[in-house]
Amino acid sequence: MEKFTKLTSIVAPLDRANVDTDQIIPKQFLKRIERTGFGEYAFFDWRYLEDGVPNPDFILNEERYVGANILVGGRNFGSGSSREHAPWALREMGFQSIIAASFADIFRSNCMQNGMLPVILSESEVDTIMARSLRGYGYKVTIDLESQTVTDDQGLNASFDVDPFRKNSLLEGLDDVGITMGLSEEIDSFEAKRTARW
Asked: Tell me, which fold does domain 6-197 have in CATH?
């Protein structure tokens, strides 16, 4: 997993509340056993027309948001099922962080387990970022995980909370497996003592 420290990027807006995981990655695309290959199907029903052509009315298809690594969404982002495929798909679309007023708990945890930072800001702060990203071209914010801030060049200076354990994991680029592997000496010592008791 890549380390997440600071990210400056164009912001792509998805001004919809209650975006659920079936909308992020529809169930018919969950047949793969790898963690890859889901990005092209993210937001499939919104992103493409029936003939497979990109939908010109879907905002994330607009040229001005190409290359965006930050997504700003409505409240209760990632609701629905617990499928980990949702953050996999978003990550493959290029998103490294999502800003919203609230997230479904399991989706939020799955994001952090996959190196993505879900940032919770107030409704008014999210509305500001949404409006600025909708208004023009090239609107950027900087997300600094170490200082837990979101800033732009128009006076935005917002702070967010993050669980200290998850913060450290993202800063170090470690998922649960990586953290466990870092404890190999302690695990070996425990196993040796346990075996000796038998």
From this structure: Aconitase; domain 4 (3.20.19)
Residue 163 structure tokens: 């669980």
For strands 157-159 and 149-151, give the pairing: antiparallel
For residue 172, give every residue at least 6 positions away whose Cβ sits within 8 Å of its Cβ, in sequence order, or none: 3, 178
User: What does the domain layout of the chain look like in residue ranges?
Assistant: 6-197
* 6-14, strands of its sheet edge to edge: 117-120, 97-100, 70-73, 6-14, 140-144, 149-151, 157-159
pLDDT tens readout for residues 81-98: 889 999 999 999 999 999
Q: What parts of the chain have a pLDDT lower than 70?
A: 176-194, 196-198
138 within 8 A of 162, measured Cβ to Cβ: no
160 and 121 Cβ atoms separated by less than 8 Å: yes
